[in-house]
Request: fold
Amino acid sequence: MKLTRSQTAAFGIGAVGKDMVYALSASYVMYFYQDILGLSATFVGLILMIARVFDALNDPFMGILVAKTRTKWGRFRPWLLSGTVLNAFILYALFAAPDMSKARLMVYFGVVYILWGVTYTMMDIPYWSMIPAVTDTPKDRENLSVVGRTCAGIGSAVIQVGTLLAVAALGGGNERTGFGASR
Reply:
């Protein structure tokens, strides 16, 4: 099956949004929990490391789940939809940490950040795995990969440039309020 330009563009648009979410977490979670909420850099870094180790195990498992999925909506759609919706809720929870003691905040961050990684994997693995399933033309596969990665880079750049500006504007100069913290 040969892909149309609109199908290729739609794939790229999906990569923009997906990687905007990733860039937000990757770029600002340490800053938020360390500088805004006051957790130690050592602890936050430890949780980030644990999450990456867990992710190394979780990604192949998700790949197996996607490969074995058989629904009337296909292999990819159920995971893309559920992963995206769940990840949106978890991302909100990640940057809307409730007012609590440091010890509870540490537990909250550890649990929510690991859940964020799991839900991101639920949408990321099927997203990139569907390339060979949507076309059997090697040139289209290459093109789809290039468009997806380019658009993902654009989404990341938008977050890098715009997040702190948006936080300042939304919080009226208060970073805690701008990030969505209820403190």
